[in-house]
């Protein structure tokens, strides 16, 4: 066999039906395992471990890996693309089927775009309040807050991609340096013994408590925590701090070597919006004779430059702007009502619609093309 | 086919990369400085100092002026009597028990006639506080539809999956009038 025909052969073999069958079979196995595991380890953890991963280490065994959901889907996508290119008969009477296959490819591309661009979070607004940012549900950040300005606080945030043990990180704009000693996606503080206290532990939480790792919570109610070494501070403050992602904890206040003061907090990752959203009023309707809500809605103002637009957000009527979708999720009552809007960003949100339209058109076209032949065959049978 | 599958799997795996860290800078509106008191109702200055200490199961606290204490029971460390407006008063219980914190707060919400909240919404409704035992939070639960059933709560998580729960019940307006002293009292709890 010549070299060129050997290379052609391997590329064409990417379109093999066997690859599709084995990969799909493995995907079914992953779905079954992930669905069962989700009952014990929580939905988000299982989505990340089984479906969004490239590799899985079964039972955390060292040196043993199997393909994760993302790698399996990538194999299927390469296989279907190769089939489309090398095995598809581009004949007039096959055009309907080919368009349908292209629709399936668009659906898969939409899945890829969604996997890599989706951000989900929420924003809580009191009546009269406005916001130009929201907090992600499943991502964390270490936020270093410079409060020196009278007008606003300046935040330098390190995303959870930095949360690796003994891999120090810093930013050019900050004199501080971080080195994570322990990080747990779910943990609980346990009392530290007197003998375990040392001068390196700086904040009260670190002195009084240590962190005990927990398995992921089945209801995704995880408390993330870390022990982090912070340096670049004035004398007496360099050392180990405990950071917990808990709404009940105050921020850590530190002073850098240059005298500048900062606050540090572990929080849900903040994303900026390309516009400002202001809650004018929140309305709650009750079921007659009860205090149970039958419906609730938020009247918001979307402010973009000089443009102000009033929009009502309520069930099945989200607000969509620049790829962001705002849903009415929940509320709290107090001196001023607080509306909680769920925010979803997805670059690929339109692709499934295009895919479905393409698939439907392809099937319709195939039916129209095949119809004369089917009619003739039916007549001959009769 | 198997050789192709292995080659494809390896090639794609090489493309996969670890999640990269990102540094982002942004600005936020000014937030209260650590330790700043929340806004108080007009005309209600905080009572400072304390009339004394009270004890229960190793925990100590300082009672604001005019507050008094009744003895506790097996589950309850103490009952605090808090004068509010005129001759009125409310009572607060101090207890230590376990259970999921969100579930306990939602149970209070249902007692006040409010619907339970998901975690994110619950977090938004809580106010952090630093006590001498450790960090905790204040949970005011006021239902405008049932103004007589207000709850002003405080929770201080402890090791061993337990927490100190302080729960004052009464009319919304009376609880709001004692909220600043309630926070001072919570901050004074120590072991």
UniProtKB/TrEMBL annotation, chain A:
Example of a GO biological process term: cytochrome complex assembly
**Bilayer topology:** Multi-pass membrane protein
Specify the superkingdom.
Bacteria
Q: Which UniProt keywords apply?
A: Cytochrome c-type biogenesis, Membrane, Transmembrane, Transmembrane helix
Which cellular compartments is it found in?
Answer: Membrane
Q: Where are the transmembrane segments?
A: 20-41, 61-82, 94-116, 351-371
ResB-like domain ranges (all copies): 268-340
**Cellular component per GO, a single term:** membrane
Chief subcellular site? membrane
Protein name listed in UniProt: Cytochrome c biogenesis protein ResB
Q: Which organism is it from?
A: Persicirhabdus sediminis
UniProtKB/TrEMBL annotation, chain B:
| Name recorded for this polypeptide | Lipoprotein
């Amino acid at each position: 066999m010549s070299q060129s025909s050997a290379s052609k052969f391997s590329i064409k073999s990417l379109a093999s039906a066997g690859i599709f069958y084995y990969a799909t079979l493995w995907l079914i196995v992953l779905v079954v395992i992930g669905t069962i595991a989700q009952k014990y380890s929580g939905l988000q953890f299982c989505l990340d471990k089984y479906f969004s991963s490239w590799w899985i280490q079964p039972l955390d065994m060292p040196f043993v890996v199997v393909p994760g959901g993302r790698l399996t889907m990538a194999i299927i996508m390469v296989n279907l693309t190769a089939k489309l290119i090398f095995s598809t008969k581009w004949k007039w009477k096959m055009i309907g089927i080919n368009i349908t296959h292209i629709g399936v490819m668009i659906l898969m591309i939409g899945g890829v775009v969604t996997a890599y661009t989706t951000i989900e979070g929420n924003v809580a607004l009191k009546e009269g309040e406005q916001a130009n940012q929201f907090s992600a549900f499943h991502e964390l950040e270490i936020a270093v807050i410079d409060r020196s300005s009278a007008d606003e606080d300046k935040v330098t945030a390190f995303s959870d991609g930095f949360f690796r043990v003994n891999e120090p990180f810093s930013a050019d704009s900050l004199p501080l340096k971080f080195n994570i000693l322990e990080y747990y996606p779910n943990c609980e503080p346990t009392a530290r013994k007197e003998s375990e206290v040392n001068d390196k532990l700086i904040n009260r939480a670190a002195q009084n408590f240590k962190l005990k790792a927990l398995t992921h919570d089945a209801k995704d109610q995880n408390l993330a925590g870390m022990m982090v070494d912070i340096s670049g501070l004035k004398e007496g403050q360099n050392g180990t701090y405990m950071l917990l992602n808990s709404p009940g904890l105050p921020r850590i206040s530190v002073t850098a070597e240059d005298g500048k003061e900062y606050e540090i907090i572990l929080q849900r990752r903040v994303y900026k919006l390309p516009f400002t959203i202001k809650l004018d009023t929140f309305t709650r309707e009750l079921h007659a004779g009860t205090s149970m809500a039958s419906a609730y809605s938020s009247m918001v103002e979307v402010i973009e430059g000089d443009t102000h637009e009033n929009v009502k957000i309520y069930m099945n009527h989200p607000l969509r702007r620049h790829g962001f979708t705002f849903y009415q999720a929940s509320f709290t009552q107090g001196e001023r009502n607080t509306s909680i809007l769920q925010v979803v960003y997805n670059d690929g949100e339109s692709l499934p619609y295009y895919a479905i339209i393409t698939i439907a058109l392809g099937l319709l076209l195939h039916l129209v093309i095949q119809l004369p032949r089917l009619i003739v065959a039916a007549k001959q049978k009769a | 086919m198997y050789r192709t599958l292995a080659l494809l799997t390896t090639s794609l795996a090489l493309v996969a990369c670890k999640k990269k860290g990102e540094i982002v800078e942004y600005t936020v509106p000014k937030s209260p400085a650590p330790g700043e008191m929340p806004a108080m109702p007009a005309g209600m200055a905080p009572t400072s100092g304390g009339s004394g200490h009270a004890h229960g199961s190793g925990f100590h606290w300082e009672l604001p002026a005019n507050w008094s204490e009744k003895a506790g029971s097996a589950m309850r460390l103490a009952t605090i009597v808090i004068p509010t407006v005129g001759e009125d008063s409310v009572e607060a219980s101090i207890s230590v028990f376990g259970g999921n914190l969100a579930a306990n707060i939602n149970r209070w919400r249902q007692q006040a006639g409010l619907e339970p909240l998901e975690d994110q919404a619950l977090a938004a409704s809580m106010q952090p506080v630093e006590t001498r035992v450790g960090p905790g939070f204040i949970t005011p639960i006021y239902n405008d539809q049932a103004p007589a059933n207000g709850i002003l709560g405080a929770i201080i998580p402890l090791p061993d999956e337990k927490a100190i729960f302080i729960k004052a019940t009464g009319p919304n307006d009376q609880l709001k009038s004692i909220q600043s002293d309630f926070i001072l009292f919570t901050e004074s709890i120590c072991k």
